[in-house]
Amino acid sequence: MEPQDRGNITSRSLVAAAFAVLLLTAATAGCIGTDRHQQDGEIVVAVTIPPEQEFVERVGGDHARVVLLVPPGADPHTYEPPPGILADVAKADMYAVVGSGIEFELAWKDKIAALNHGMLIVDCSRGIDLISTGEDGHRGTDPHIWVSPRNAKVMVENICQGFIEVDPANADEYRRNADAYLEELDALDREITGALARSGVTKIMVYHPSWAYFARDYGLEQIPIENEGKEPSPRGIEHLIEQAKEEHITVVFASPEYSSRSAEVIAREIGGTVVLVSPLAKDYLANMRHVASAFAESSRP
Ligand code: ZN
To answer: For residue range 230-244, what is the model confidence (pLDDT) as tens digits?
Structure first.
């Protein structure tokens, strides 16, 4: 083990220890947040990733205040929350977990739930057909369910049911808000289906394999560059360059959350470009529209 690695592990243990102390303090302070619905009518909803923030804001409207646990630009596979976020989570009425096995939730969901016994946990993945995977750095199931607008509809429905359970007095409003957003997701789905069908693109080359659910819905195959969560070997890069040439790929996708040195190398070798697309942007509808049109222009079929 390199000395640098030891340093990282020590600082991680310190964060965990600080979290444990705060957890104990919150517990002995007398079960914060036992009344599920706040007095002022504001529904505080914790979410893991930025796209869920849009889902919750659209369904909750003026009633909702979102506590985002993994901030923009952070990687939910490795992010650890600063202890300060706990004060906010302790006030939440509901925590909408992605629920598909993303590492942040595997590590922190139970600890966060223990801080606030009155909080409703909504599993946004309920009803979604998860993709199993034994490679590409995600053992078990692929956690990136939200990148499919069809899955997003299921997530929004689960969030809507959560709002209705927490605040039944405003059930009609949550239902109306959800239906309006679900219609926009349907329109997005139709638009992406059309754009990708017209493009003839069947394979996309991506640094981090975040797009399996999108690929499944729209008849694409993702070719990941990252290997077991790391940069590929020189031989792996050679193989990817050959594949990209065979498939007439002209764009290599990376995301702002991950490094893309090997993506740059491959793009240079095929005379193409690297385009950044985020699977985690908060403005979900606009971002997915942008992603779909970028994918549609990424090879010469
Ligand atoms: Zn990922």
So the answer is: 899 999 999 999 999
